[in-house]
Amino acid sequence: MAFFSGLLTIALLLLGTGYLFHIPALLLLPADARISAAVMFLLIGFFHLVKPRKLTYMVEGMLPFPYLLVIVTGIMEMLLGAGLLFPGTWYYAGLGLIVLLVAMFPANIRVAVKQLPAPGGLPAKPWYTWSRLLFQPIYILWIWWAINQ
Predict the structure, then answer these.
(1) Which residue range(s) make up the domain with 46?
(2) Which of 49, 62, 102, 105 is disulfide-compatible with 74, CB 3.0–4.6 A?
């Protein structure tokens, strides 16, 4: 939910800035959606790299080399997120992010099923960890829509 809140907030700020300052490029919703997704994935990827130990619990015992997996996913999130900012790469970066979101979904399921705390110090309550699963398809649809407009 925090990620979704970030997506919406950034997109609305971009749209509002476009209206306020008459910037036509920011009045295009798909562009705002791509930029907001880029910012959020850059932030999340950065968090993966700065505090990888805070995320390894999500895959420990499920996959080998959890520390390395957190680092690699962080790098991928940052590279693909940045790729959303450029017309020549945004489509392929978006597809890559969709694949990455699908690949990481089992870790989110594990957090909910095992009643582990949500990443990033977010609530560990079951309602929150389970509700996070509902947002993964929304992120995928957000990216798909943004790269196909």
Answers:
(1) 2-147
(2) 49
